[in-house]
Amino acid sequence: ARAPRLSVVTQRLELTRLTAQPLLLGDARRNVTVHFPPTLRSVLGGPGGRQSVDVVATLMPSTETVVTGVVALTFQDPSSHLEIPVNDLADPIVISFPAFEAKYHPLEENYACVYEEAGSW
């Protein structure tokens, strides 16, 4: 069996356009859609009034044992390339996965939605 292809996409976005339209990841059949809340703009702008950010999106497609793809998002300063920490947003970043028909229906307790926050799962 082949391992799924991990893809990393970096896109520079102006903060004024960050929430205007969703970020689409993946191919036409398996798009993952990311909606950024308006409150994210002030966090990413920071005290220096940053005008744009680099959004680094990592996507690992679903596999036989992973029902949906795995998505990681980071934000970087375009000048320094340092990661911009994002904590305690008033509104969430919404990540949507395409609907699909599962090949089998395991027990509900076998599913878990996990995310990393401040180094913890």
What does this structure look like?
The protein is mainly beta and 121 residues long. It contains one helix and six strands, in the order βββαβββ. The chain has one helix at residues 39-45; strands at residues 7-14, 23-25, 32-35, 52-60, 70-76, 94-96. It has a three-stranded antiparallel β-sheet with strand order 1-4-5, with no helix packed on it. The chain has a three-stranded antiparallel β-sheet with strand order 2-3-6, with no helix packed on it. A hairpin with a 6-residue loop joins strand 2 and strand 3 (32-35). The two termini are 28 Å apart.
Tell me briefly what this model is.
By secondary structure, this protein is mainly beta.
Q: Give the helix tally.
A: 1
Between the first and last Cα atoms, what is the distance in angstroms? Answer: 28 Å
Helix percent reads: under 10%
**Strand order of the main beta sheet, please?**
1-4-5
The radius of gyration is 16 Å
Mean pLDDT, nearest integer?
A: 78
What string, H for helix and E for strand, traces the elements in order?
Answer: EEEHEEE
Q: Main sheet?
A: 3 strands, antiparallel
Anisotropy-based shape: elongated
Oligomer: single chain
Judged by helices, strands and strand pairing, the structural class is mainly beta
Low-confidence segments, given as residue ranges, are none
Strand content: 25-35%
Count of β-strands: 6
